[in-house]
Amino acid sequence: MTDVPRDLDRYFSENAERIRSELFDLLAIPSVSARSEHDPDTRRAAQWIAGSLGAAGLKATVHETPGQPVVVGEYRDAPAGAPTVLVYGHYDVQPAEPLELWTSPPFEPSVRDGRIYARGSVDDKGQLFLHIKALEAHLAVRGKLPINVILLAEGEEEVGSVNLASFVEAQKQLLRCDAVVISDSAMFAPGLPSVLSSLRGLAYFQIDVQGPAQDLHSGSYGGAVVNPAMALARILATMHDAQGRVAIPGFYDAVRDWPAHVREQMRTLPFRDEDFRAEVGAPGLGGESGYSVLEQLWTRPTCEVNGLLSGYTGEGAKTVLPAKAMAKVSCRLVPDQDPAEIERLMAEHVRRVAPPGATATVTPLHGGRPWRAELDGPLYDAARRALATAFGREPVITGEGGSIPVVGDFERVLGAPVLLVGFGLPGENAHAPDEWMSVENFEKGMRAIAVLWEEISGDYHSQY
Ligand code: BES
Ligand code: ZN
Known about the structure:
Blueprint: H1 6-14, H2 16-27, H3 39-56, E1 59-63, E2 70-75, E3 84-90, E4 110-112, E5 115-117, H4 125-142, E6 148-154, H5 164-170, E7 179-182, E8 194-196, E9 198-199, E10 201-210, E11 216-217, H6 228-237, H7 260-267, H8 273-280, H9 293-299, E12 304-310, E13 320-321, E14 324-333, H10 339-353, E15 359-368, E16 371-372, H11 378-391, E17 396-398, H12 406-414, E18 418-421, E19 436-438, H13 439-463
Parallel strand pairs: 3-6, 3-7, 7-18, 8-17
Antiparallel strand pairs: 1-2, 2-6, 4-5, 5-19, 8-18, 9-16, 10-14, 10-15, 11-13, 12-14
Helix pairs in contact: 1-4, 2-4, 3-4, 4-13, 5-12, 11-13
């Protein structure tokens, strides 16, 4: 195993403090894409990223979309024949609520016990920023990069990347590349660098049930008028069978079996159900029977309630028959499930099971395709060597239960392989209070990515 090149390593060490304080400036911007009142902040984050790319020595442009802007940084001065790599990340973050559960305020980054606490520290500002700093290090120390780089940062990942697929289609020429590299995921365990081989897809819905024209006295009317909260509960209860399988007819039709060698690989990972249960703090585990926890998380589709709203939920008791009820429901998808087809099946199913006397409507909110890759070829060899150099340990291949909607679009539209190499850790509290990123992983991540560019250029020169 080789070491991180001395000049790059020294740059990261000597500039560690400045790099940290710049990261804190980015983390302090509340770029919450789900909330329109934060639109000015989200735009400010886009400008901030563009400024940071420019300062690193890339040509930065900000592209308007119907939603949040897309920021593109370009370096195209690599030697003839060098490959072009597209780096993708997102500068938007999830809402920080409930605020009272944060130990320190979400947009006032602070370091405790080797962790950077802030909303977006790991998902994904910290990981996006370490890519910018890896590029900066090459350009500052050596005056050049061994590969061409396009860095694309979007501001709508956390709300389903609804405008990104069409941006990628429209900018196919600008984004043409030989490989895509993304750091927006986690390592399997501390000290264990990881390369992702799969992501689940997503189909997200809102289900509204409308009963009487307005709230009613539950004594004067209850018993004769259908209660929309109960109607919604009955609808939701039809979505799983007793084995924990999704009971929407046709839901599994497109599901492909996972390759035996990938399932075998999964069994070699250090994982104990009991540790997992303890980490999430639940009294027990559940889900689809007949599958291990990792299989449930990575290889099987789901249907989950993400939110429920109806009736009186304040202090004390109020005897009311609510006029309406609402649920946010999402399905995680696996290859080859198609979000559009799942939308169709869900709408049909709800129509079939909705009790009479209330009107149920299903509104699709967003979706993304699942992704799975065979990890071979020069890109993955380069990643293995770069991670081994920075972390002192060969990476493991893992799967992921979460989604990054654009990954399938990159592959389809740009025809380039995608490498997902993330530096988060289990328990990082992404999307939750007290989100953190490990300082050690931030430091090693920057170095791994800086080495990756060298490894990719070497590989491509010798193999093409
Ligand atoms: N960084 C995550 C994706 C992810 C989640 C990677 C968990 C590894 C582990 C990303 O920012 C995310 O949260 N994606 C959303 C996408 C959705 C809003 C379309 C998700 O998975 O919920
Ligand atoms: Zn996220």
